Amino acid sequence: MIALPDFPWDRLLPYQDLARAHPDGIVDLSVGTPVDPVPPVVRTALAEAADSPGYPQTYGTPRLREAAAGWLRRRHGATVDPADILPTIGSKELVAWLPTLLGVGPGERVVLPELAYPTYDVGARIAGAEPYAADGLLALGPERVPLVWVNSPSNPTGKVLPAEHLRKVVAWARERGAIVASDECYIELGWEEQPISILHPDVCGGSQEGLLAVHSLSKRSNLAGYRAGFVAGDSSLVKRLLEVRKHAGMIMPAPVQAAMAVALDDDRHAQEQRERYARRRAVLRPALERAGWRIEHSTAGLYLWATNGTNCWDQVRALAEKGILVAPGDFYGDAGRSHIRVAITATDERVDAAVMRLQ
Ligand SMILES: Cc1ncc(COP(=O)(O)O)c(C=O)c1O
Questions:
Q1: Which residue's alpha carbon is nearest to atom 16 within ligand 1?
Q2: Sequence-ordered list of residues with C-beta below 8 angstroms from that of 22, at least 6 positions apart, any chain
Q3: Which of 111, 146, 223, 266 could cross-link to 228 by cystine, CB 3.0-4.6 Å?
Q4: Where is the Aminotransferase class I/classII large domain (predicted)?
Q5: Is 99 within 8 Å of 241 (Cβ atoms)?
Q6: What is the dihedral of CA 193, 225, 123, 117, to 10 degrees?
């Protein structure tokens, strides 16, 4: 049996019950699941591809891989050959299985951020490797590691890693033969800072050697329910992932491939969604500040990383008593024990209700 941590969200259930008891109902700012409609162009593409009796391609259709390459070029200044793109069934499965798919194993350490999305840790454990939380690579000394995760903008903190920082990570990793996996699922949600992809020439120097960028349409296009993501980068690594995924049946359904291609080609719906989140962020942030919370980082992404100096679970309780459910910072590492993570993903009506209750 693989020893995995308790599923963190189960620990939040009593507070969910407390928040639900509010006479005007719960405002759920915990998980960060999209609540706005799937864009009509994407739904149409899904429906038009509904008659899909045959097996889809693990590699993804050329149409899908070209759309992903086009989006990376157009929106993020990264030139990637469509051959070096591979669809994934959402990005969480890739995060959880990447160490295993790459052959990382016992006796090896996978580096991940100190405050991080819990699945990097889980993925290392599934592979039988050891998760190692460190923001600075110097702490590793001369040790060689197979895989380093970076996540910018960060879940949970909303911090953006500047190009210079990412360049240093890439140089460090290349010197030692480590792979850098960059989880960029919030890259389109820069507010006060513009996130940059690991595959941008200013970071990677024009070569994708040793690099993988992990992308998701869950947040950009409200496609969390479709399970739509992709990984792009180093040609030989993508080929290796493709080989194993073909054997293992890790295949994105054909209608989702068709829908995802259309979503990647269309920037208009993504801009509209950005504007929705911008508005919610603009009202929630000052409301939390007026109620005694300080917001740290949070210059990009879908979350406000907040603290009032007390233990995170006391903060969770105080807000649950107002009917507002948020995530405790210690879900993301010990360093988060005095913080909460507040998602900006509720409807305008629910966000306005939270603002009222914070007054
Ligand atoms: C940092 C990070 N990576 C990956 C994911 C997984 O997203 P999905 O599987 O929906 O693509 C999430 C989801 O919230 C996340 O916060």
A1: 155
A2: 322, 323, 357
A3: 223
A4: 26-358
A5: no
A6: 30
Q: Which atom of ligand 1 lies at the shortest distance from residue 88's CA?
A: 11
* Residue minimizing CA distance to atom 13 of ligand 1: 92
User: Residue 5: what pLDDT?
Assistant: 80
Q: How far is the CA of 121 from the centre of ligand 1 (A)?
A: 14
Distances in Å between the Cα of 65 and the Cα atoms of 81, 196, 260, 265, 271 are: 9, 21, 10, 11, 22
Alpha-carbon dihedral of residues 233, 231, 77, 300, nearest 10 degrees? Answer: -130
* The two three-digit tokens of residue 67, written as one number: 């759309």
CB–CB of 180/212 below 8 Å? yes
User: How long, in residues, is the chain?
Assistant: 359
Report the nearest atom of ligand 1 relative to the CA of 219.
10
Query: Is residue 92 in contact with ligand 1, taking CB distance under 6 Å?
Result: yes
User: Are 119 and 196 a contacting pair, CB within 8 Å?
Assistant: no
Pairing of strands 27-28, 324-325: parallel
Sorted by sequence, the CB contacts under 8 Å of residue 332 that are 6+ apart come out as 115, 116, 117, 118, 155, 156, 341
**CA 23 / ligand 1 centre spacing (Å):** 32
Candidate of 185, 187, 222 to mutate for ligand 1, largest count of ligand atoms within 8 Å of Cβ:
185
What are the backbone angles phi and psi of residue 325, rounded to the nearest 5°?
A: -100, 125
pTM of the model: 0.97
| Mean pLDDT of the 294-309 span | 98
Q: What is the pLDDT of residues 41-95, one digit of tens each?
A: 999 999 999 999 999 999 999 999 999 999 999 999 999 999 999 999 999 999 9
DSSP string, 244-275: HHHHHT----HHHHHHHHHHHH--HHHHHHHH
151 sits in which H/E element: strand 147-151
C-alpha to C-alpha distance for 99 and 178, rounded to whole angstroms: 12
3-state secondary structure of 297: coil
